[in-house]
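User: Second chain of the day. Same drill as before.
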Amino acid sequence: MTATQEVLTPTIREGSRAARFWIVGGVIAILVAFATLVITGAVGAAGRPLSPTDAGPQGAKALAEVLRQQGVTVTGTDSMAATRDAATTPSDTTIFVVDDGRYLGGAELRELGRLADNLILMTPDFDQLDSFAPEIALAGSVSGPLRSDCDVRPVVQAGTVTGTGSGFRNIGADSGIVLCLGSGDDVYSLVQSVHGGTTVTVLGTTAAFSNQFVLNEGNAAFALGLLGSTPHLVWFLPSIDEAGAPTAADLTPGWVSAVMVLLIIATIAAGFWRGKRFGPLVVENLPVVVRSSETMHGRARLYEKSSSRLHALDALRIGTIDRLAAMVGLPALASVDDVIRSVAAISRRKESEITGLLRDANPTTDAEFVRMSDALLDLESTVASSARPSSAPRPSTTIDSTQQSTEPGE
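Assistant: Same format as last time:
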C-alpha cells in the first residue's frame, strides 16, 4: 500500500492565536496615534502667540475686539499678498507685525514701511534689525513693570507697562530716535524712529498685549493707544510661506523625475509579470492527500536542480543501511560501523570498500552518482544472496544391504 502524507489546514482558533500579537499591537498603535492627535490638537488649538483670533492666554483676541468696538478696522493677515490687499491709504493704516517665526527679511519689512505710515514690529530678531533698522540692536531679556519715561502718548497714558519680553539698545548716531520704557543700562522696551516718512516702532513688551496680562498695569491703554492710532489696523502674522524656503523640486537634480517615472513603470510591469496566473484558481477540499511517491519525486527534482548529489546519495545510503542491518540480523539501534563489519563478513569484501560506499565517498559528477547508486543496489543484492538460507535437498542416510538386523534370541 502506498504511504501518504496529510497537509491539514490550520483551524480558526489556531490562526487567531498566531495573529493575536499583531492584533494587540495594531490596537495599541491606533490608540497611541489617537492620543497623540488629541494631545497635539489640544496644544495646537491654542494658536499662535498674540494672534487676533486666539482667545487663549497667549493670544490677543481681547485686544482686537476692543479695537473693533472703538471703530478701528482690524484685519488679520498671514501673507504679504493679503497684507498688500488689506492696506489702504498709508496715512490711515497701521501695520502690526508679529513675526515669531522670523520669516520676513529686510526687503519685506521695507515694503511694509511703504504700505503704511505707522509700522509696529513686535520683537524683531537680530537679522531683521540689521537689515531694516541697523541703528537698533537687541539687548537681552526684560522682566518686571516698566514706568513711563518718554513723551510717546500711549506710554504716558499707560503710566506703567508689563515689561516681560525683549529689550533694545540704540547703537546709531541719529538723535531723532525715541527711547521709552527703560529697564537700566541703556536698555529700552520701546524704540521709535522714522524711516522714509514711516514711523517705525520696535516693541519688546510681548506680555502686555496678551489676553493674560492686558488688564494688568496700564497695558490696555498702552496697547490700544499704539494699535488704534489710525482707522485701519493690519495685524500681520507671517507664515512659513514668506520664508522663501526652497521646495523639494528645487533641491533635487533634473534626472530624478525621469528615474522615478522609470521606476514606477518598472514596478507596474513587474507586478503584471509576477502576478500572472496560468488559468483559473482551483478549489480543493482539505485535508489534501499527498502520495509519498510525489514527495520523493519532488525532492529528487530539487536535488537535481541544485546539484545536491551528496544529499541524494545520503538519502539512498540511509535506506540501504537500514535494509542491510535487517538482512544481517542487527537491531535497529546498531551503529553504521557495526553494519559495515557485518556486511563485510557476509559479502567477503573489504571494510574500507564498504565504508567508502556507505559513508565516505562523495560523488562529484552525475555519472559517479549513478555508479554509486548502482553499487548500493549491487551490495544489497550480494548481502541478500549470502544471508538467504540454502534451498538444496539434505543428503539421505543409506543402509548397507548386507547389514541385517539382529533380533533378540537369535
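The chain has 14 helices and 13 strands.

User: Great, on to the next one.
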